[in-house]
Amino acid sequence: MIQTHQLSYAYGRHPVLHELNLQVPSASIFGFLGPNGSGKTTTIRLLMGLIHSPPETVHLFDQSIRTNRLSILNRVGSLIESPSLYNHLSGRDNLEIIRRARQVDRLQIDQVLAMVQLTKDAHRNVSEYSLGMRQRLGIAIALLGNPDLLILDEPTNGLDPAGIRQIRELLVALSHQHGKTIFVSSHLLGEMEKIATHLAILNQGHLLFQGTMTQLRALQLPILSIDTNNNQVARQLLLDAQFRLLDAVSDQLQVAIRDRVQIASINQLLMDQGLAVYGLQTNQQTLEELFLTLTHAHA
Ligand SMILES: Nc1ncnc2c1ncn2[C@@H]1O[C@H](COP(=O)(O)OP(=O)(O)OP(=O)(O)O)[C@@H](O)[C@H]1O
Fold it and tell me: Which PROSITE patterns does the entry link to (predicted)?
């Protein structure tokens, strides 16, 4: 559905994206993850042709955005940041304005309202809507014209947990029941891991990972928590021996390890230096920790 080839971009002299090769399969919910400022919005603007990409670097539906922008955008619905809405009009009237401008069949208004579960509130002024309702109305607008692909930039930004959950459920329904391909950006892995079939992780304009959720999970390392009679000395010894220490969540030390043999080596190293080892315990790294390790390692 989306392919980028060695896509790089700079604002003036400030490079923001470095040789991105994105591949978004049909029918996927593709989570596009990265910390603030990593280049997600810039990528989305390039995908939509809102800023110019170099020739032959961006293709949607196997067509170049540079040469086929209009026919591509007829098949794409998008929500970039918060939707522009007329607050003094109802949700239905906001949809009606866009429907006319885009010459879409009137019947679609009820359909998209039902899809985003705003039928009951469609007559109310948008000024009375919660942030979550506004985002859902923005998605309803994106759905006018029955697009094959939805491109959503941080649609859960600023929402409370209930609002986030509603958007999550909506995206799953749009994918499963309506067959949409969904490209959605977020800076929270926890939010994406529940729904994404595929993920890409961007940091400082570099793609650090791209693949299925299963492939990402395979990268989760075992973490060894270590407690000794002098964790400060132990920390320095481990650093000197090139072990990878993680940001401490407690006063214990945490090290990413590859295998069980390393546990024995660490134990030996600490004992050889006269430290008393009180505890060595392994746990699987959470996905959030993996995300932080990947993004910090390249910061
Ligand atoms: N119009 C612009 N002119 C110059 N620099 C820009 C412009 N827009 C964004 N940038 C810079 O490009 C980099 C990437 O920004 P971008 O908005 O694409 O990141 P992001 O991942 O979407 O971040 P966020 O989650 O904060 O929106 C940042 O360093 C930002 O300051």
Answer: ABC_TRANSPORTER_1 (PS00211), ABC_TRANSPORTER_2 (PS50893)
Strands (E), 118-275: 149-153, 181-186, 198-203, 206-212, 222-228, 244-245, 253-256
Residue 275 identity (one-letter amino acid): L
**CATH code that applies to domain 2-217:** 3.40.50.300
pLDDT of 248: 66
Is the Cβ–Cβ distance between 273 and 241 less than 8 Å?
A: no
Question: What's the topology of domain 222-297?
Answer: Alpha-Beta Plaits (3.30.70)
Predicted confidence at residue 249, as pLDDT, reads 63
Shortest-distance Cα residue to atom 9 of ligand 1: 42
In the chain, CATH 3.40.50.300 sits at 2-217
Could you tell me the distance, in angstroms and rounded to a whole number, from the CA of residue 34 to the centre of ligand 1?
A: 12
Q: Give me the pLDDT at residue 244, please.
A: 84
> Whole-model pTM?
0.82
Segment holding 280, helix H or strand E: strand 277-284
Summarize pLDDT for 47-64 with one digit per residue, the tens.
999 999 999 999 999 999
Distance 13 CA to ligand 1 centre (A): 14
Residue type present at position 150:
L
Q: Is the ipTM of this complex over 0.85?
A: yes
Residue 12 Cα: closest atom of ligand 1: 4
Residue written as tokens 């590859």? 258
Residues of the chain with pLDDT under 50: none
φ, ψ for residue 241 (rounded to 5)?
-90, 10
Most distant CA atoms of the chain, gap in Å: 79
Atom of ligand 1 nearest to the CA of 38: 21
* Per-residue model confidence (pLDDT) at position 299: 52
User: Residue 57 has what pLDDT?
Assistant: 96
